[in-house]
């Protein structure tokens, strides 16, 4: 029930501590059910996060900019990764997504340059715009359950650079999605246009 306000706007409560940039680990207790928007954003030395409670949601920008974050296991009650939640978490090497997550939100893992492979677990249905943009992913595995990977046209009817895997150097794909709906340039075509 903690209410916090920083410099006129809601932000991370850890600004209340002089050494917030020196915090290396956070354990969320058993009364915590959700992680608010921007709750731990830009804590550049944070490397480990654990959850003791029944967390069901992780808000937008919750861990964005936590460039040292290496160890986090998303609780099984979470069914969606909100937009920008782990953007620029360059210390992550394994994608912390489990089978109960249905949606990976826009820009959720953008700039996570520690990712070299991306195995999307069975259960995930939607990968939103720029979800893995600018990662170093060379191998990707798309599961049976995937229904949607984002690719959007801009004002001039060209495909924009915010598709799900923009600027990833993918050279190998395992494709197992048989319920996937795709449309390219007004007609059904190869789904691999969704990748650079």
Could you characterize the architecture of this molecule?
The chain is an all-beta fold and 196 residues long. The chain has no helices and 12 strands.
Describe the structure concisely:
This protein is mainly β and 196 residues long. It is built from no helices and twelve strands. The strands form four sheets. A four-stranded parallel β-sheet has the order 6-7-9-11, with no helix packed on it.
Give the SSE map:
Layout: E1 25-28, E2 34-35, E3 48-51, E4 57-58, E5 71-72, E6 80-81, E7 103-104, E8 117-119, E9 126-127, E10 139-142, E11 148-149, E12 172-175
Parallel strand pairs: 1-3, 2-4, 3-5, 6-7, 7-9, 8-10, 9-11, 10-12
**Measured on Cα atoms, how large is the radius of gyration?**
17 Å
Helix content range: under 10%
Structural class: mainly beta
Name the poorly predicted regions: 4-10
Trace the largest sheet across and list its strands: 6-7-9-11
Q: Which sequence of SSEs, written as H and E, runs from N to C?
A: EEEEEEEEEEEE
How many strands in all? 12
Percentage of residues in DSSP E strands: 15-25%
Number of helices: 0
Terminal-residue CA separation = 45 Å
Kindly report the oligomeric state of this protein.
single chain
Q: What does the main sheet amount to?
A: 4 strands, parallel
Shape: globular
Mean pLDDT: 84
């Amino acid at each position: 029930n903690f209410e916090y306000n920083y410099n006129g706007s809601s932000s991370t409560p850890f600004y209340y501590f002089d050494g917030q940039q020196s915090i290396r680990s956070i354990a969320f207790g058993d009364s915590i059910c959700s992680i608010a928007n921007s709750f731990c954003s830009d804590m550049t030395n944070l490397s480990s996060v654990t959850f003791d409670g029944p967390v069901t949601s992780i808000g937008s920008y919750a861990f964005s900019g936590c460039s040292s974050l290496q160890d986090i296991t998303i609780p099984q009650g979470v069914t969606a990764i909100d937009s920008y939640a782990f953007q620029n978490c360059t210390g992550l090497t394994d994608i912390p997504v489990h089978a109960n997550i249905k949606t990976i939100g826009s820009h959720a893992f953008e700039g996570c340059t520690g990712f070299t492979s991306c195995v999307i677990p069975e259960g995930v249905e939607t990968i939103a715009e720029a979800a893995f943009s600018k990662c170093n992913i060379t191998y990707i595995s798309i599961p049976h359950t995937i229904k949607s990977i984002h690719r959007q046209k801009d004002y001039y009817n060209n495909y924009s650079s915010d598709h799900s895997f923009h600027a990833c150097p993918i050279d190998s794909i395992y494709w197992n999605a048989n319920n996937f709906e795709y449309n390219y340039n007004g007609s059904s075509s190869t789904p691999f246009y969704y990748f650079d």
